[in-house]
Amino acid sequence: xxxxxxxxxxxxxxxxxxxxxxxxxxxxxxxxxxxxxxxxxxxxxxxxxxxxxxxxxxxxxxxxxxxxxxxxxxxxxxxxxxxxxxxxxxxxxxxxxxxxxxxxxxxxxxxxxxxxxxxxxxxxxxxxxxxxxxxxxxxxxxxxxxxxxxxxxxxxxxxxxxxxxxxxxxxxxxxxxxxxxxxxxxxxxxxxxxxxxxxxxxxxxxxxxxxxxxxxxxxxxxxxxxxxxxxxxxxxxxxxxxxxxxxxxxxxxxxx
Length: 256
What we know:
The protein is α/β, with parallel strands linked by helices. The protein has helices at residues 21-32, 45-57, 72-86, 109-137, 149-152, 158-178, 196-202, 205-213, 223-233; strands at 12-15, 36-41, 61-66, 91-94, 140-145, 183-190, 245-248.
């Protein structure tokens, strides 16, 4: 049997928003590396069940828990179910998010709150619980998903950009706070990715071509390309990477 380059055997991961797109790819790659994986999902039970089926068909162990990522009670329930089932949470991936267009003068307070709560408050809720558990064990890994929008802004998505910029600052603050407890905290900032979330935008060939032309590599990322960076960051291969923002955008935003 070929030895795994990245081996997460005997580790348990909790991935928020793990039923589709980038989240699903993260779950599958973590499972392929040997991790037991809990994924949360908001509403699409069929997609969540399909992700668990894929994990199990590849020989892994998966658990799907319905949870509103912006709900403290439901996030706690997902965390406790992971502990009850797998005994620990060694890896946390904060991936749940929404991306909805709204010009600032038309954006309602409800629209703003939905994006900030789903994208940023959810990170606090998950990391709050994970930090307590990981500090007691003096071990753990967290990866928070940001975006190029959090680095350079994005017209008509100011609420999304604000939430993702907050993720970057939150990552750096947690890295300084939790590093002494052997808890590594990092951030991944994807650019455009081919997912359900972006499918409607890319249905316009002219728009898609414009996006591709603005990327130096000339192509849009796949969910698997984002997931591979997350998997690397939670592995021993990245054991001295801490508090970093890893850009996975084909060169569309060139920043340190």
